[in-house]
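Quick start: read one record
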Amino acid sequence: MEVKSRHHLRSDAIDEIRDALETNLGVELAADSFEKVELEDVDWDIVLVDGDPLVFYTDSEPFLTVQGANAHPPAKHVVTVDAGAIQFVSDGADVMRPGIVDADDDISEGDLVVINEEGHGKFLAIGRALTDGSDMVGSEGRVVESIHHVGDDLFELTV
């Protein structure tokens, strides 16, 4: 991945990020520096928060990266998977109903969500809900489309 541009964000853009993360995830993001990095050949941009890639934009919506979720654990829009799903989700697979042990009822179809593993509480992936949270636990079907996961290019990014 090549850097296309890199610039510090204005205070109104920082406020937009903070408000979105507070509203959607219940995360208060306090930091001294916010720098937007636009990359070549990818569908998202990242925001370095105090030098770390903690936020990314997908469809013009700011959301935490996997690193961001582990550094600032979300209180909302969390889908928790069992130990059997960890390897698949960590490799970028979509999340299937049988692997889910819990999902927030406030999740609506189309929302961005964070995928958490039940054993250690670590966040493994970011995805888009294909159904409401109240309908995620069950016996069959794909319910979260994976967008970003542990070990992908964004996770391994160093700028």
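The chain has a mean pLDDT of 93.
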